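Readers outside the structure-tokenisation community will struggle with the description of the input data as it stands. I therefore recommend that a typical entry be quoted early in the introduction. An entry of this sort, consisting of the sequence and the corresponding backbone structure tokens, reads as follows:
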Amino acid sequence: MLQTDLAYLAGIFDGEGCFYARLVNRKNYTGGNIEVRVAVQANSMAMILKIKAIYDELGIVPCMDKGRMQSLGTRLTYKVSVHRKSDVSLILTSVLPYLVVKKPEAEMILEWFTKWGHDMRGMSTGPKYRPSYDERVIFVNQLSAAKKVA
């Protein structure tokens, strides 16, 4: 893996990317599990394919999608996203030295993973207790607040 590829990916994340977390309820778990995603949506298929090639080198299989960015939009957009927690962690750890704008968000996500393990409920790989619902809500709100420009 070339360092220039990771720097390129960090630049794309800073300009076009999105790191986000949301609370989701699953059939077998209604306590507000956290889903974290790393996504890029753009008009350039060449850019999306370059991102996919970098992910392939890292051993990550992303979700690929296409659609329209706005309901009245005429240009087709392409989206590449990753939501498996171990893959998100690998991506963020790899690009962290090169991030500028989204560095605080990446650090928050990695800190959460370190504190609770890759299981966002903190059950299988984290400590013996899981984060409370309030702690999960606070994390999601803090990550959202980090996106706001003063």
